[in-house]
From TrEMBL:
<dbReference type="Pfam" id="PF00293">
    <property type="entry name" value="NUDIX"/>
</dbReference>
<dbReference type="InterPro" id="IPR000086">
    <property type="entry name" value="NUDIX_hydrolase_dom"/>
</dbReference>
<protein>
    <submittedName>
        <fullName>DNA mismatch repair protein MutT</fullName>
    </submittedName>
</protein>
<dbReference type="InterPro" id="IPR015797">
    <property type="entry name" value="NUDIX_hydrolase-like_dom_sf"/>
</dbReference>
<keyword id="KW-0378">Hydrolase</keyword>
<feature type="domain" description="Nudix hydrolase">
    <location>
        <begin position="6"/>
        <end position="136"/>
    </location>
</feature>
<dbReference type="GO" id="GO:0016787">
    <property type="term" value="F:hydrolase activity"/>
</dbReference>
<dbReference type="InterPro" id="IPR020084">
    <property type="entry name" value="NUDIX_hydrolase_CS"/>
</dbReference>
Length: 139
């Protein structure tokens, strides 16, 4: 059968969560892109809509309750170092409740709000594409 992202291109999803002009980012502990800062997200499960996957992943990784979201952009990444290939649908929201918490310390080491003009480095390809789309929407 094989593994998505490794044996064939995987389908990912992500959510750019915004509050007061700041973006929620978390630092990854595992491949792909271990040590990189990323928006919340992950893989889309079989027979799951990508928007539902983005909401699920965001809630699992941050503890927030997501009320609504809108499509933001598509990101495609080939990560040679990890031998992975992902096509991801990225969404955006500022409609949520709760405060972010580090709910998956086995997968993420840090979580917090960052101004779009003062982001931690390195940023994952996924996060870079989301930030570029967010900045384009503001222009």
């Amino acid at each position: 059968m094989g593994l998505p992202g490794i044996d064939f291109p995987g389908v990912g999803c992500g959510l750019a969560v915004l509050k007061d002009g700041k973006l929620l980012l978390c630092r990854r502990l595992k491949a792909p892109e271990s040590g990189y800062w990323n928006i919340v997200g992950g893989k889309v499960d079989h027979l799951e809509l990508s928007s539902d996957g983005a909401r699920r992943e965001a809630e699992e990784e941050s503890g927030l309750s997501i009320r609504s979201l809108d499509f933001l952009c598509i990101s495609e990444q080939i990560i040679a170092a990890d031998q992975q290939h992902w096509v991801s649908l990225i969404y955006v929201t500022d409609d949520f409740s709760g405060e972010p918490q580090l709910t998956e310390p086995d997968k993420l080491s840090d979580i917090g709000w960052y101004a779009l003009d003062c982001l931690p480095q390195p940023l994952s390809r996924f996060a870079q594409d989301a930030v570029a789309a967010l900045k384009a929407r503001r222009a």
